Amino acid sequence: MEIALLTVQIPLDTGHIRRFIARDALESHYRDAGNQALAGAITRAEKAGQNCSPRIAVGHIAQTINHYALELGVDLLVIGTHGRTGIRKAVMGSVATEVVRQTDVPVTVVKLGKA
What we know:
Elements: E1 2-9, H1 23-47, E2 51-58, H2 61-72, E3 77-81, H3 86-92, H4 95-102, E4 107-111
Parallel strand pairs: 1-2, 3-4
Helix pairs in contact: 2-4
């Protein structure tokens, strides 16, 4: 069994930002933020003796997760959620809910604790 780890970075290179920030700087930012987001999961997988393949993507989060799930032929998606409710959920939405609605792959949603 192999665990595919994915973090999706929100695109920042829209609108006028391209005038002020070079593409290389944005790519470096995505890579650094992605590596930071995946570091703990990679360490835990390695300690458990699990093979994992980390991936960093940039795009709409739910759509990108579903794209990778189809591309990789995954058997199960495990997604973390902040567990927002009420106004926060209405304003910010729920990536986990969007993923569950869009995919045909079974999904396990895990509420993230405070680190």
